[in-house]
Structure formats: C-alpha cells, structure tokens
Write a structure and sequence with these properties.
CATH architecture: Roll
Low-confidence stretches: none
CATH topology: 2,3-Dihydroxybiphenyl 1,2-Dioxygenase, domain 1
Distance between the termini: 62 Å
Number of helices: 3
Number of strands: 7
Largest sheet: 4 strands, mixed
Helix content: 10-25%
Structural class: alpha/beta
Radius of gyration: 19 Å
Strand order of the largest sheet: 1-4-3-2
Mean pLDDT: 90
Strand content: 15-25%
Order of helices and strands: HEHEEEEHEE
Number of domains: 1
Shape: globular
CATH class: Alpha Beta
C-alpha cells in the first residue's frame, strides 16, 4: 500500500535520483572506543562532535568520521577497500608520515599512479584504511613506485600496515 503523504508530494513522474545536498558523515567499525577516540583526536587531530557509550564522531577536514563498537564488521586482511581519503599537500603528507612513525603506527611508502600525485595509506587501530592524497607538488613524485589507476597494485604492502599497539609520544 502506498503512503498517502508520499503520493501527495510526488504527483509528477520521477525521472532520476534527487541531487543530494552535501556529504554528512562516514562511520567505521572500532575495536575499542577509548582507543579509537584517542586515535581520531590525538593522532589525526579531529574535534569530537558526538560521544555516546558505543559511538563517537570527529570533525576532520570538514567531514564527520564516526567510530562505533556495536554491530560492526571489520575489513579483511589484504583489503584496500573500503577506505576513506583526505587531500593533503606535500608538507602535510611528510608531516603525517613522521607523526605516525612517532606514534608507532606503520604507514605505507609514498606511491603514485601517474608520477604527478603522491599517495600514502595507513590504518586506524581497528584496521580501517585511511589514504592521504596529494594532487601535485610532491617532490620526486615522478620517481615513486607506481600503482594502477584503481587500487594500489604492488606499489604498497597493505598487509604491513596492521598493528596491535601504538602510543602517543610524551
């Protein structure tokens, strides 16, 4: 049975999808909420936006990233997808790689698809893949290992990015 309000609001023929207004958020599974909150606030610099006993959300680069511990499924070994990405300039890429190293968090080598851009992967403590993507201006991008147009190919050992422990520097 059709909903009467829906019928009244949609008298014209629907010819395609609506234009969505803006991106709201992405939520990913989290193995330990306290650890996840430390990572997204102290490692990635996110500002906590929502906090409940089983979920937290952080504002990062204009996007809300949520982490939850209930009803989760986790990314499998050797999987690049799903992942989420942030644009970064060359200095931000280098800074993040150095910061992750100080925190004991493995990150991939820098790599490129076309020899102009630079990319880097790392994971949050729960194994969710995060990508930094520098569109241009990364010195030596033309000499970086190459990956295919889609995915990392053999340019990155994504299995080496998993870790169990990490720490914030004192």
């Amino acid at each position: 049975m059709a909903h009467p309000v829906m019928e009244a609001q949609h008298k014209t023929e629907v010819k395609g999808p609506p234009r969505l207004r803006e991106f709201a958020h992405v939520s990913v599974p989290c193995r330990d909420l306290e650890e996840g909150k430390r990572f997204y606030a102290k490692v990635l610099g996110g500002e906590m936006h929502v906090e409940t006993p089983t979920f937290a959300s952080f504002r990062l680069a204009g996007v809300d990233v949520g982490i939850g511990v209930d009803g989760c499924s986790f990314i499998g070994k050797s999987a690049e997808y799903p992942h989420f990405a942030f644009y970064a300039n060359a200095d931000e890429m280098l800074h993040m790689k150095a910061w992750l190293t100080r925190c004991g968090i493995p990150s991939s080598n820098f790599w490129s698809r076309e020899g102009v851009e630079a990319l880097m992967f790392f994971r949050d403590p729960s194994g969710n893949m995060i990508e930094l993507f520098c569109l241009e201006g990364f010195k030596g991008a033309d000499k970086l290992p190459r990956g295919p147009a889609r995915g990392h190919g053999t340019a990155v050992d994504i299995d080496a990015l998993r870790y169990e422990t990490w720490q914030l520097p004192e």
